[in-house]
């Protein structure tokens, strides 16, 4: 009877350890679609630190680095390409957010970069907004 109990306890302990290991591995390997996909604007020290912090947090996936310095283009940081900011127009669907990692910029320089990164706005005719002709009510 003692041998049977020992075998059962050993088997149970092994099963619990495997279940806990699988649970921990699944929690660490979140599905890629659950991560916020980001582009980091700035491939300097601040950009590298930001990417490392995001990777460590496990909530974001750095898809690309953007930098306006041509000599950095086609280089990589941890296997992630450094590309010109203009590429974002083509890769807009690949990222959910653009994070600015250039702490020495002035407010006006940051504003210019943010304005340049905004998608183009297409004006719409007023009739397209309301879906038809609208008449003003007549005063009685």
Short summary of the structure?
This protein has about 140 residues and is α/β, with parallel strands linked by helices. The chain contains 5 helices and 5 strands; from the N terminus they run αβαβββαβαα. It has a 5-stranded mixed sheet, with helices on one face.
Explain this structure:
The chain is an alpha/beta fold. The protein is 43% helix and 16% strand. The protein contains 5 helices and 5 strands, in the order αβαβββαβαα. The chain has a 5-stranded mixed beta sheet, with helices on one face. The longest helix has 27 residues, at 2-28. The termini are far apart. The mean pLDDT is 79.
How does the SSE layout of this entry go?
Elements: H1 2-28, E1 36-41, H2 45-57, E2 60-66, E3 76-77, E4 80-83, H3 88-91, E5 97-100, H4 107-117, H5 126-130
Parallel strand pairs: 1-2, 1-5, 2-4
Antiparallel strand pairs: 3-4
Essential attributes:
5-stranded mixed sheet, single chain, 16% strand, 140 residues, alpha/beta
């Amino acid at each position: 009877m003692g041998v049977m109990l020992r075998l059962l306890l050993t088997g149970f302990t092994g099963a619990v350890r495997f279940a806990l290991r699988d649970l921990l591995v699944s929690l660490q390997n979140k599905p890629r679609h659950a991560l916020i996909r980001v582009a980091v604007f700035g491939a300097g020290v601040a950009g590298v630190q930001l990417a490392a912090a995001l990777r460590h947090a496990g909530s974001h996936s750095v898809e690309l680095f953007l930098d306006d310095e041509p000599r950095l283009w086609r280089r990589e940081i941890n296997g992630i390409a450094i590309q010109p900011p203009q590429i974002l127009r083509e890769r807009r669907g690949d990222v959910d957010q653009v994070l600015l990692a250039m702490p020495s910029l002035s407010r006006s320089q940051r504003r210019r970069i943010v304005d340049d990164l905004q998608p183009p706005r297409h004006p719409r005719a007023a009739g397209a907004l309301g879906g038809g002709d609208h008449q003003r009510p007549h005063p009685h």
